[in-house]
């Protein structure tokens, strides 16, 4: 287990053979540049997190055999060079520099988001000496910035409902590994927990229960909590499939009625032939765009079961009347209408790979998220087509396995792709689908696996052996901070 | 999901088409037979657990479409026919009868342990009606007793240390599924958290840290908590292998020194040639026998790496002088000495299957625990040899997999063994080895998988399809009671 090393590994780091002590009651952050609420909140938060101990009476810490400076480190200069932005975005600048030497400590960044990443790094440099009471930091200089700008974590809150607390914990855990996008797979077939002001029946009738709804305030709270961690919240409203839960609270025409004698209650995807359905979606997406602050909106588009469409007499007639010759063209027609909506709303769509696979016409800025196995061919095709791309195929954290799981996730690196359009790879997302996950196990199932994905997406040099010991420390750090991250590599003990 | 059904499934149960309401402020247990502290404590505990709600404002409960009696159920007669025993044992009588009809409710058992099992069952019969405020119970008569008398759960507290709270939670969770043996794999190579009065250095030098020790009081607390749940605590002090952590705090002669140029700090199994080592073990086991109240003691005996023995010059000389012609005989010699100790202490040994496999001479009462895969042949051999046997091979809960895991564990049933000595099958144990498990994930990794093992060992008729819906309810019940049991079968929602 390492001591005071950073996860994910910084781009450039030099450590010197000199150490400074830090005393909880004699250390402060000195803001010397711009400031804002986000910074105030985070400085308070990190002041607390710098000096956490989970165990008090311990004598089993490693000696850091240090060459101490005479004076303890009394402050860190926090120098933000520009005014804070309101919300994080795809193009936010996360670069920061840290320099700790025997006379001076400084954290410097162009943007508040860089400052946040730097504070996280600084907090990870601080560790506890073997006397169990002295906190220490090694003289270090770091210049750090991410390899990919979209480093996401998907949580599916439809198959199981998560209390808000679980989501806030998840956001905290993400921030400890510098993940920066919370992909909120908020609704799906099983339940519709999103409370819409325009269509309150969607959650009233589509949620698992009245206690299983994200109220307008809940959503606001989650977005604000994400914001102060520099995490974007991108909601996914998956259509035209995966929308069974929309039926009872939506409009009557919304879903194709696929019922038959065997299954009298079978409803298929959203009916693409009914104009009212697009009006409904436009109203909903307008609200969604106002509630969520990100420019991106995930439209889903995966696993559309089209049999209900092709078997429906009315749909068949519609296709004939509109010169739509097959189901793929019908799906194209559906998405053309949806893209018209997002275009008006100035929202950039993200879609699952099926929408690309089926040759549906996409605006050039539409982002394609790849989730199926053997992703290389699809990845190549998407890159050739000029669309920005996100990878998730190899990062389905819900497929838990025995052992040092994180190593599998760590071995998958989209930057190994041979392409001259690597600029189109925005990054990727770890996915936590909730068939077999809920608030009882989401944290230990997600962490430290998610940390591996985070490092792949942030760091430029990946070395599994070196990472193992560093991850071990990171797991203990997460546990100190209240995240129940499960054991990474085998038997071990967190010594503070 | 079922409503008010019992896990594990009772031996005989008749349900009638009549329901009684229960009101939290107008219900009590009436003790009409013997009583004792255990009963007092449990009646208070179950009074609380009968009326738990995790969610308050819910309208999504199923209607039980009931035929209600006029009068609510105001009390349950608890009729214990014999004085309480002090501690549970292998031969404890867990049989109980419950009869709930429109005029009367009675729980009857010969022993306090039967009463405890019956209270658990009674609490599971009570469920919440769809109005979200009325608790109801169906008129039912049950006669219930277990198929196997040893229904265990092994926890390895050496590879990772568990706070006492984790162990108490584990015991609670066990009791909800009528498991009755906590096999405490308390020490192993990695750490020695057991605080011995005779040899305090064992934990002082062998534990992961000073905060990673089960003090004398901790152990007492755990045993007492188990006792009031009718759970035996059988500690395992695994020798002669798996004992690296004994070295620093034991006596200098304890482990064979196997060091060489490549590994200067390599110590092998306990040295079987040194009489002081047996004296040491005798003193330790005498203390262990006093601390733990069970007649059984697990001696381990698995995975002995004998190379250190056979390569040691002194051991070779000892073998020659004592006419010990091979390493198996040397291991036999070791266990002969250990069995002499347990015989004096009137302790019944349990050993892992290797001790049987290697033809070490065993007293007839020695219990053999089978853990290796493809267990049928070994099981047959042990039964033919006349030794009592415990099965664990198919119940390694730590080997977690994606999906409805519990079904695999549920499919393994030792009573399917063809034998005329089925009386020798005492039962089995679910095992939670801690290479990749600690307090962050032990509960969701263990449950509801452990429930499946519990039902296999308790119930006489097993039906996976029927069990699935009942387990779903049991998971919600465990969550209400504070045990984070993970999803059993897929998307779902606990409605109260």
From TrEMBL, chains A, B:
Report the catalytic activity: Hydrolysis of terminal non-reducing N-acetyl-D-hexosamine residues in N-acetyl-beta-D-hexosaminides
Q: Where does the source fall among the domains of life?
A: Eukaryota
Q: What class of enzyme is it?
A: hydrolase
The UniProt record lists the Beta-hexosaminidase eukaryotic type N-terminal domain at 6-125
All disulfide bonds of the chain are 36-84, 258-308, 476-494
Catalytic residue list: 303
List each copy of the Glycoside hydrolase family 20 catalytic domain by range: 148-460
Please provide, in alphabetical order, the Gene Ontology terms of the cellular component aspect for this entry. lysosome; membrane
Keywords linked to the UniProt accession: Disulfide bond, Glycoprotein, Glycosidase, Hydrolase, Signal
What EC number(s) is this enzyme filed under? 3.2.1.52
Gene Ontology molecular-function annotations: beta-N-acetylhexosaminidase activity
Give the Gene3D superfamilies listed for this entry: Chitobiase/beta-hexosaminidase domain 2-like, Glycosidases
What Pfam families does the record point to?
Glyco_hydro_20, Glycohydro_20b2
Q: Look up keyword Disulfide bond and say if it applies.
A: yes
What's an example Gene Ontology biological process for this entry?
glycosaminoglycan metabolic process
Q: Which family does it belong to?
A: Belongs to the glycosyl hydrolase 20 family.
Instruction: Return the protein name.
Output: Beta-hexosaminidase
């Amino acid at each position: 287990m390492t001591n005071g090393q950073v996860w994910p590994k910084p781009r450039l780091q030099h450590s010197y053979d000199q150490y400074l002590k830090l005393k909880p009651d004699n250390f402060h952050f000195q803001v010397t540049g711009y400031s804002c609420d986000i910074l105030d909140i985070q400085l308070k938060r990190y002041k607390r997190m710098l000096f956490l101990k989970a165990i008090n009476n311990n004598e089993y810490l490693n000696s850091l055999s240090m060459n101490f400076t005479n004076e303890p480190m009394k402050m860190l200069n926090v120098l933000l060079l520009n005014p804070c932005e309101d919300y994080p975005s795809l193009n936010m600048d996360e670069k920061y520099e840290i320099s700790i030497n025997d006379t001076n400590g400084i954290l410097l960044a162009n943007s508040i988001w860089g400052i946040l990443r730097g504070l996280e790094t600084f907090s990870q440099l601080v560790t506890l000496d073997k006397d169990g009471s002295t906190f220490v930091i090694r003289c270090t200089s770091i210049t750090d910035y991410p390899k990919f700008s979209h480093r996401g974590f998907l949580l599916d809150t439809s198959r199981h409902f998560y209390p808000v607390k679980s989501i806030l914990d998840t956001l905290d855990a993400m921030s400890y590994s510098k993940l920066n996008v919370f992909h909120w797979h908020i609704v799906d077939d099983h339940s519709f927990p999103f409370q819409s002001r325009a269509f309150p029946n969607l959650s009233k009738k589509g949620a698992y229960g009245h206690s299983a709804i994200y109220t307008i305030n809940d959503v606001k709270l989650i977005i604000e909590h994400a914001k102060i961690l520099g995490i974007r919240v991108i909601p996914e409203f998956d259509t035209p499939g995966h929308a069974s839960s929309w039926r009872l609270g939506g409009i009557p025409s919304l879903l194709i009625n696929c019922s038959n004698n065997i299954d009298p209650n079978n409803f298929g995807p959203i009916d693409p032939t009914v104009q009212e359905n697009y009006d409904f979606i436009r109203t909903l997406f307008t609200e969604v765009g106002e509630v969520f602050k990100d420019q991106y909106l995930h439209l889903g588009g995966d696993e559309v079961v089209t049999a209900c469409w092709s078997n429906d007499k009315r749909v068949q007639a519609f296709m004939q009347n509109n010169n739509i010759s097959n189901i793929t063209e019908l799906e194209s027609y559906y998405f053309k209408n949806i893209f018209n909506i997002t275009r008006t709303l100035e929202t950039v769509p993200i879609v699952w790979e099926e929408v690309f696979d089926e040759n549906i016409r996409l605006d050039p800025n539409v982002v394609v998220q790849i989730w199926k196995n053997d992703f290389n061919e699809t990845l190549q095709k998407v890159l050739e087509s000029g669309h920005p791309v996100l990878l998730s195929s190899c990062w389905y954290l819900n497929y838990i396995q025995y052992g040092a799981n994180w190593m599998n996730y760590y071995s998958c690196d989209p930057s190994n792709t041979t392409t001259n359009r690597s600029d189109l790879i925005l990054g990727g997302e770890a996915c936590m689908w909730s068939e077999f996950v809920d608030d009882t196990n989401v944290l230990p199932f997600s962490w430290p696996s998610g940390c591996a994905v985070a490092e792949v997406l942030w760091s430029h040099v990946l070395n599994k052996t070196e990472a193992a010991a560093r991850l071990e420390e990171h797991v203990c750090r997460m546990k100190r901070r209240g995240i129940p991250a499960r054991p990474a590599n085998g038997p071990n003990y967190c010594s503070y």
